[in-house]
Amino acid sequence: MLQFPQFDPIMISIGPLHLRWYGMMYVFGILSGWLLGRYRATKPWNKMTPPLMDDFITWAILGVVLGGRLGYVLFYNPSYFLSEPLKIFAVWEGGMSFHGGCLGVLLACWLFGRAHDMTFTEVGDFVSPLVPPGLFFGRLGNFINGELWGRYTDLPWAMRFPDAGGLPRHPSQLYEAALEGAVLFAVVWWYSAKPRPKGCVGALFLLGYGTFRFIVEFAREPDRQLGFVALDWMSMGQVLCLPMILFGAGWMLWAYRKSA
């Protein structure tokens, strides 16, 4: 059994300025997506160019931050934030929803495409391989914050987290970092290395993320304010992943049949 390392939430202090680990994980995720995007924009089958990628990253940041925070507020704890509306802005305390951030980025892709004469699927297929590194860093941020820990287990790598009832639990944040971050990046990046039917790179991302997240949720403790929300065993994360899995699989099947 392992003991959760007590991280100092502040990564660097420069006078009155405090850079927190949680916030810096988002910075690292955005930076990795931008650098990978500039590299990917040099490939001849993309309409995106490095200067356009520099423009898009601003749209993406707004989509991730606004969508992720509003998604958490609406999907996971609306009653709390109705009673404490100013807490909506306290993002350094944690509380971001991937599904909300995904919707925010999808909206950013659509708006960016309209502004630069690109279709939604062209922008989505370009952006999808850039997302998993951000998920990797985001889950590391959850781990450092000691939040979103897993269910009780007696496995050798079980960990005692603060505020988790003193029970040994799955380090589910690290499971998600590995699957949603590292493995998903390898799969989608490899798949996107040559032209595919329109929308299929984005569809593979949705299918892969939805599947990995659905699986890991069996090891992750449901949000205490929600518990199980369907069938007495499905968490909110699993419910939100089902449309992603169905849409991703359905789109890929349709697109390959259409291109045959």
From TrEMBL:
Subcellular location: Cell membrane
Transmembrane parts of this sequence: 21-37, 57-76, 88-113, 199-216, 236-256
Pathway where this protein functions: Protein modification; lipoprotein biosynthesis (diacylglyceryl transfer)
Listed InterPro entries: Lgt
A Pfam cross-reference name: LGT
MF (Gene Ontology): phosphatidylglycerol-prolipoprotein diacylglyceryl transferase activity
Its biological purpose: Catalyzes the transfer of the diacylglyceryl group from phosphatidylglycerol to the sulfhydryl group of the N-terminal cysteine of a prolipoprotein, the first step in the formation of mature lipoproteins.
Protein name: Phosphatidylglycerol--prolipoprotein diacylglyceryl transferase
